[in-house]
Write a structure and sequence with these properties.
single chain; mainly alpha; two-stranded antiparallel ribbon; 69% helix; 3% strand
Length: 252
């Protein structure tokens, strides 16, 4: 293992051990060189590794330096996306992974959800009904709904994996827009809300099978163009090829 990797692990462990809050500035370079007994180039490489992994952000300027950042599932999603790009994975193959993970998560939520969490989910549904015409608010409440369900499952590892797969799909859409019918129209948002209500009811009954079935219906509301079907070479790499094609068309 490279020395910079060892130092990166030591720094990240120190951040965790000291329970440093997001936004905390780390010591000056000179102090860190002395503490970890390495050269400046090794320390800087370690800090770059941690920045790439979402553990730090490097500020520039007079008040600059490494600042603690809390890693997000989207950081893991980006790493997964890179691996998938090289395998030519399709959008539907990513969704297949989502279909394997999400039912397990909601089954755990049905086993462990608290009365307070059920009440909070109910509040999300009330706001989704009330703000069905205001997409930004509707989306915010939908995300909050799923965050509470993930917390109710009491499985942080599975919750992070589900969020990471969601991030992979978000990146897929950003590369090459894919229609997501779940919230595209008012009718779709009403249907989306009704499915969430059924999920809420299943959680309230502690019915894991019913909750898992509704979760799969929610996933199935997402649609993909024919090029994204399994067996197609248009996968996570499709966005890059599409951009190259559009660029060549503009210069032709």
């Amino acid at each position: 293992m490279k020395q910079s990797e060892i130092v990166a692990r030591q720094i990240s462990q120190q951040i965790v051990d000291d329970d440093l809050a997001e936004g905390t500035r780390l010591p000056p370079e000179k102090s860190m060189v002395e503490e970890y007994q390495v050269g400046r180039s090794t320390l800087r490489e370690a800090l770059r590794l941690l920045e790439n992994r979402g553990v730090l952000s490097i500020k520039t300027g007079r008040e600059g330096g490494p600042v603690v950042r809390r890693p997000h599932p989207s950081d893991l999603g980006e790493a997964i996306s890179l691996a998938l790009r090289f395998d030519g994975v399709t959008a539907e193959q990513v969704v297949a992974g989502q279909r394997a993970l999400v039912p397990r998560l909601v089954r755990l939520a049905a086993e462990n959800v608290s009365a307070a969490q059920l009440a909070a989910i109910g509040e999300c549904l009330d706001r989704m009904d009330l703000y069905v015409e205001q997409i930004a608010v509707f989306e915010t409440e939908s995300r909050r709904f799923h965050t509470i369900v993930a917390e109710a499952a009491q499985s942080p590892v599975l919750a992070i994996l589900v969020s990471a797969v969601d991030a992979v799909l978000d990146g897929f859409r950003a590369d090459d827009p894919i229609p997501d019918t779940r919230q595209a129209t008012r009718a779709a948002r009403v249907k989306y809300t009704e499915l969430h209500k059924r999920l809420h009811e299943a959680l309230g009954r502690r019915d894991g099978d019913a909750a898992a079935a509704v979760a799969l219906e929610l996933i199935d509301m997402m649609t993909f163009p024919p090029q994204g079907r399994p067996g197609s070479r248009r996968g996570v790499t499709g966005g890059a090829r599409a951009r190259e094609r559009r660029a060549s068309e503009r210069t032709a």
